[in-house]
Amino acid sequence: MRALDLKLLRDLWHLRGQVLAIAAVIMGGVATMVMSLSTYDSLVSTRDRFYSEYRFADVFAVLKRAPEPLAERLAAIPGVERMETRVRAGVKLEVAGFSDPITGQLLSLPDVGEARLNRLHIKRGRLVQPWHADEVVLSDTFADAHGFQPGDTLAAIIHGKRKRLVVVGVAVSPEYVYQIAPGSMFPDFRRYGVLWMGRSALAAAYDMDGAFNHASLTLARGANLQDVIDRVDAILAPYGGTGAYGRRHQFSNRFLTEELKQLRTMATVFPAIFLGVAAFLLNIVLSRLVALQREQIAILKAFGYSYAAIGWHYVKLVLVMAAIGVAAGVALGAWFGQGLAHVYRETTFRFPYLDYELDAGVIAIAFAVGALAAVSGTLLSVVRAVRLSPAEGMRAEMPEIYRTTLVERMGLARWFAAPSRMIVRHIQRRPLKSLLTVFGIACACGLMMVGNYQRGAIDFMVDVQFRQAAREDLALSFIEPTSGRALHELAALPGVDHVEGFRDVPAILRFGQYHHRGSVFGIQPEGELHRSLDRMLRPVAVPPGGVVLTDHLANEILHVKPGDLLTVEVLEGSRPVRQVPVLGITRQYLGVSAYMQQDSLNTLMREGATVSGAYLAVEPGTERELYARLNDRPRVLGMVANKAAIQSFYATIGEFILFYNFVATLLAGAIGFGVVYNAARISLSERGRELASLRVLGFTHGEIAYILLGELALLTLAAIPVGFAVGVALVGILVVAFQSELYRLPLILTPENYAMGASVVIVSALLSGLLLWRRLGRLDLVAVLKTRE
Amino acid sequence: MIPRMPADASQPVFVARGLTKVYQMGEVAVHALRGIDLTLYRGEMVVLLGPSGSGKSTLLNILGGLDAPSGGEVRYLDHVLTGASDAALTRFRREHVGFVFQFYNLIPSLTARENVAAVTEIAKSPMRPEDALTLVGLGNRLDHFPAQLSGGEQQRVAIARAVAKNPAVLLCDEPTGALDSHTGVVVLEVLEKVNRELGTLTVLITHNAGIADMADRVIRMSDGRIAEERHNVQKRAAHELSW
Fold it and tell me: Is the ipTM of this complex over 0.90?
């Protein structure tokens, strides 16, 4: 081995504590990047494989009812490759021993042969057998939540008639990778299930003999999506078609797409912070190393080593440090990635399999990014090392130049004893380095806050949504729009304290080139249960004669402001198109909504007092009996109980939150310790001689520790408020990057978030302080008398 | 609590008996001291002379409470230093010993005055830092940082720092080693003045035989032993020295 390379290895060994601390920071950045990118790749490739193997459709169309022969016209549309019609029924489900209301979606499977599109992957059991009218296949989420096995039974209320069903299989479908009940805010695997049964059996039960109410189709290569959708709509319009839509609007796929987008964001924002901090750390460590090795460098040059050889020597040194960090980061990232993919598969996305893949490209990117951060962080020091002329290098360095600090010139000096002056002057001598150290520590604090932010934000969202806006205990929807008189019947049921009707009209909202597919919600202007909130989250009444939009819908999707005229294309009944003025913008964190007064919406629809469903306040303790009564009402289609929904939501996200907290704590700890420990070690290396001199002069271990650790403590304390600001900024980035139609995170930080951020910094500092305290005890007092540094 | 200096000049300050020191350097045992018997008195100016490796620095370090002997005993007044705890040795250095190093070892972030103050702040009955600096002829350089002072001036600050606490003993390890002859003489004059005016026992290590002439007593060391000990009948003043 060449002599210089031996020197490299020994230098690394000598600096091992710092090498490890830097490698830990690089590891943090690389790990987040690898975790996000590999999970992203895995989900994308799993999705693509699942979609293609199980023939996920490209276009979906919902209609009221059309005779089966119409299917031929759909199949004949140019650009359609495969087409399949189905019967789809909203049902209520009853599971023995579970009293909460359960909504279900029942879909038909062909009586003979496999489905042409949206095929099922059977996890357990089998598909339904032809002409067995009581057999069903359950979605795995629902089956797992209730522990259903093939052979078990449950009841469904289809079209008002209770039907006993036998579970024969448990399956996942590309259509329901993400499962959420229509009108719900969160997935709730116990209270929402998707079921499949034979076409003729379902048609018989749902009164759809020889007819269909759902069609899906795939496009031939090169076909234009919008053209096909337009033709489908034209054919289905007379049959109550509510407008065909592509994958982009398919709920499960849309959520999956949003989640993938967020993973991409995570793969860039967080690694950037880590690697920036790592670059800074490498810079301070290498500048110190070059300062210490001045003489060695000069001697090497005097021997005739070229600038390039010496420069390359130091570049290799940082590359080795970076390589250790990257290798550890790739390993940790792969571990995190598998964990995250597993959490996704358990809690959110139901795939039949998950191909976890760590692409060689991702590893290559990790090494490239790590090397770039390392080299860019140290380039200046390397150049300085190389520039040094041999003669200059061999001369002793002049004593460091210090100045009195501003604080002292202001006359505050008399309050400081000499050790305190040493602290402030040392900090001031390299203000940039001190600032960067403070910023590095602050990053640890900020990252910790981000890691713990979600919990508080979600609590806040839930509070706003369910205790301020949607305060009903139970939301129920009718099979079809119904006269407002139905509300009186509901109000008369035992246990019902208060009833508010609502009208829900599916519609496409258009403004200029922008459009949104959703619905217009007619609520009560003086509603007690369901209210809209203004910017300050105060309840506001929806004014008559126009529509009020939630902020994300108005600002980000439709780009309208109050006073603009919105085009509402109703997707129900005779599908009228109306112009409606925008009257205001309200705040909502979950989903997006367009609200009108129910009366105004009824007028717009040219109908009498009509409701689609009702919000109920229920007397506590009477729920079970009430649910049973409502289940027996044929016109009541679905029910969502808020309290249960919230509980189940927390159960679902709990695992995510734990996972992210774990990752964030580990990584913030790595940064915190990396920065504090390095700063302290550099400081010790720069001042070891003067501290040892002071020990000789009779200063105690504690007194010199005060000088060194006092500086550390001062920087750490200064870093905490900066860290709070960094945390708020990072959360701000997260809020902007993660905002989607499905939800917007509120910029809410709890005192607990701040406490966690501060504590990671304090714990890292204490740990570094402890290690340093021990080193100070081992200072060589005799050596300082003899060496001049 | 160790009592402060006795008035009686004939009373010994340090008494060392049978001092040995063995360093284990890897597999080789280095005998730095091989049995030293030595008594040092108040007000004396003692020069320890000898080539490098003769054990003079080891002896100085043991006297100053920086190192412990492998065998033998050291007493400071009526206290045994051998076997004392780190905390006790620290207190001993803090209250009774002034050190002057070859490379000054000033704190670069503190001015001349503050370098002295760093020590007087923790001493029992110190001089004012200004007085200590005036004593070494730097009354006009109080607020200069080390980087703004010449080597000789830095060493004089170091001497002021050492004497400002009114120590019983001043231990100087090659105080002129890093200085040219002219500047070295100025520094020695300061040491001479401190010894004369404050009556501080001054032990000065050097391998420069020319300096020995300013001492009351010259101890020549060789190979870990005292090779020769002599009293200068005719002490020469520092300004008469040259090398």
Answer: no
